[in-house]
Amino acid sequence: MKRRDFIIKNGIAATGLSVLPSISLASDGLATDEKYVSNRPPKNKRTFTSTAIENEIKSIKKKIADDELAWLFENCYPNTLDTTVDYEVIDGKPDTFIITGDIDAMWLRDSTAQVWPYMSLINKDEGIKKLVAGLINRQVKCILKDPYANAFYKDLTKESHWKSDQPSPISGVHERKWEIDSLCYVVRLSEGYYRATGDASIFDSDWDEAMRTVYDVLRTEQRKDGESPYRFKRVSYGMIDAPVFDGTGRPIKPVGLIVSAFRPSDDATMYPFLIPSNIFAAISLRQLHGLYTNVRKEPAFASDCLAFANEVDAAIKQYAIAEHLDFGQIYAYEVDGFGNKLYMDDANVPSLMSLAYLDDQYKSDPIYTNTRNFLLSENNPYFLKGTAAEGQASPHTGKEKIWPMGIILRAMTSTDDQEITNCLKMLKATHADTGFMHEAFHKDDPTDFNRSWFAWANTLFGELIVKIHTERPHLLKQTF
Question: What keywords are annotated for this sequence in UniProt (predicted)?
C-alpha cells in the first residue's frame, strides 16, 4: 500500500476540495473581507496557542494589500500550532509530538520544518520556547529508539502500520526509511534553538548519546567496507517505495560520501549518494563541531565532527560537480562514486534549490547559481510548465504535478523582486479556493491536488510571507 492509499483508507482526501474537520471554517475576527473568513479552527479546538504568533499574524496582515494573500497567510502560518501539536511535560521535561498533518505520525524532518518558521519569535513567547525544547527532547527519544527510522508514533509501544515491511519496524516506529536528512534536521533544530536562546539545558546525556549515534550512523553509511546493517523491502506497486537489489540499493564506490536509501520525499534514491542530503550532513556536522566545542566542551568529538564534514565536502567537490553544456559547473542530484550522475531536483528540503535556504553561504556560490538556473530550465525533467503555474515537481507525485513547496523555495532563494512576485501570484492562483497549500497540484488544474492537510507546506508559506515582510515589504503593498 502506498502512502496516498493509506491516507484515503483513513478517510482523508488526497485530492479534491475537501478539508479536514480539524481545519474547518471558523471566524477568528481577523479577516479583512467577508469573502475571506478565517479557515482556522475555533480557538478552543487549536492544539497550541502563542500570543507572539497571534500578534505577528495581526501585524503582518495589516501590511498585505492583497486580501486573498493576507487570508492565505492567516490560515497557513499558524497551521502547525493550530492542528498538529501534542505538548506535555514528561519526567520533568517538556515533550512535544508534532504530526505531519493527515498522517498520525511524526517525521523528524517535517516536525523540525514545521516549527522552524516560529524560531524568530522564540524569545518573545515562553510557550514557543518550551514547544521547541520539547520537540528536541522528543526527537532525541526517537533517534535513540531507531536512528534509521524517519517517522514515529507518540506511543513508542504502538505497532507500525507498515509492519509488513522487511525488516518489520519495531514498536513505536511508523516507518523505517533511511534518509540522511532525518538526522540532520534534529541537529539543525538543536543548534538553531541554542543560537536563538542561549539555553543549554537541552544538551543533556540523552542528547549527547543521540548526537554520537547520529555521527556513528553517518559514518557507517559511508560504507567504506562495502557493508551496512540497513536494508528496506516493501510489497508495493510503487517502484520508488523501496531500494532495488533486495532492499540494498544500487552499487556504490566508497568515496567519502554518505548513502541515503531514500530522498526527503520518502522515495527510494536512484544513485545512493544523494547530494543535497550530503551537503546538509556536512552543514550539520559543522554545527555539531560548534556545539561540542563551545557548549559541551568536548574537543575530541568536536574535532571528529569537523574532520568528517571536511571529508564529505571534499567528496562533493570531487564527485558531485560537473560541467553542463549550457550552464557551466553545477551540482548533480545523485551520484554513485563510479562517475554516474543524475541531474534533476525534487521539490522537498533538502533539495538543490533549497541549499541557499539551508545555508546563506550558497547565495554567493557560483556553482549553486548555475545549478539554480539549470533547475528552472527545460533541461530539468522535473521542472514543469502548465496553464496554471510552473514549478518544481517530484517523482513522488508523478510527471504532471507541481509542488507549492517548490514554488515557495524558489521565492525563498530568489534575489529578484519580479521572480518573487511571480511566485506569489502562482501560489495565490493554485490553492483551489481552500485557503491552504497542498503537497502537489496538477500543472493545468489546481483543483486536482494531493493532501488537504499538509502542515509543513502551510507553515513554510507563512515563513515566506514573514521573510518578504522583513526583507522586501514593498512587495506586499501590491495586489496580485
Answer: Hydrolase
